[in-house]
Amino acid sequence: xxxxxxxxxxxxxQVERLIFFxxxxxxxxxxxxxxxxxxxxxxxxxxxxxxxxxxxxxAYGFSFFAIGVFWVSHLRIFSFIKDYDIPLLAINLLFLFSxxxxxxxxxxxxxxxxxxxxSWGLYNYFGVMxxxxxxxxxxxxxxxxNSDRLxxxxxxxxKVLRWKATRINVFILPLFVIVLFLTxxxxxxxxxxxxAVLAYVIVVRRLKKKFYPGVGNNSLSAIFKxxxxxxxxxxxxxxx
Length: 240
Known about the structure:
Elements (H helix, E strand, L loop, with lengths): L2 H32 L8 H36 L7 H15 L1 H10 L8 H26 L1 H4 L3 H8 L1 H4 L2 H17 L5 H21 L7 H21 L1
Helix pairs in contact: 1-2, 1-3, 1-4, 2-5, 3-5, 4-5, 5-9, 9-10
């Protein structure tokens, strides 16, 4: 094995460490969130508490699903990575930091007032989610812009990440956070954030149809295809 092959194997190992570390952070965050759901020890109180903890279980289920979506997106992004650099590590850590705020956002939401207009917890939760979408967009954007150095199968990158449609998050999500703050501060109608979310979803869907007509939700299959190709290439290198 020559020097170039050793460097390639070392680089591959380091990228795998980066992915394993990210997966571990996701797993720990999901585990921590469920610890907030507790049932009283006495049987009498436990019977009465099942209905009380139902909102907590529902909120945890939604948060679990949201983090799962972010994990799948992270898997989709890193299925193209063959190399890394310091900015990529920094942005990935920023993304993991935003995901790690989910337990705080969930606890803040569950401990807040049930009145939407006066619930800082609800807006904190939406703020955490918006921040996570924002950092994920930064991560995707950096990889797309440096795909010649960092990625394999660059021809599939834009189609899978749908960067032309999702890049508006860099501008839209900060505006959404501002709307959340103004809604809470000036006691505007509590439906304003909901309307903003619906408008965002509609705009993104239209952009995806415009830039990627006929492209379905086959991103998971694309991940496995790219992963299998990558494994075959590594097996061939090892045999040689």
